[in-house]
Amino acid sequence: MHVAYWIVAGLLALFYAYAGGKKLLQTRERLRPMMGWVDRVPMPLVRVIGGLEVLGALGLVLPPLTGVAPGLAIAAAVGLVLIQIGGTVLHLSRGEVRVIGLNIVLLLAAAAAVWLGAVRL
Asked: What residues does each domain of the chain span?
């Protein structure tokens, strides 16, 4: 289970560090081609989501790696599950049923990280 957690957490951390970093650093115009929803959401909220994604990525990796409060990794994974629930709801409210596949995959991966982290501790 230990190896499985690190594979799932590592892949999620890479994805969320990249996606969250883009939301934190890029303008609405640069985000729009990849994330059409940024037109409907105020930019400060986009930045908050990006910050939460980066913190979630760090939370998946740093606590277990350092041995300091490793339970925070489970909390980070739960937070990422909640972010994906919000993303799925946003896409469904915009009638974008075809684009929720990635949200569902990320939600399931984060849920697996919660389970693997709980079993590992």
From this structure: 2-120
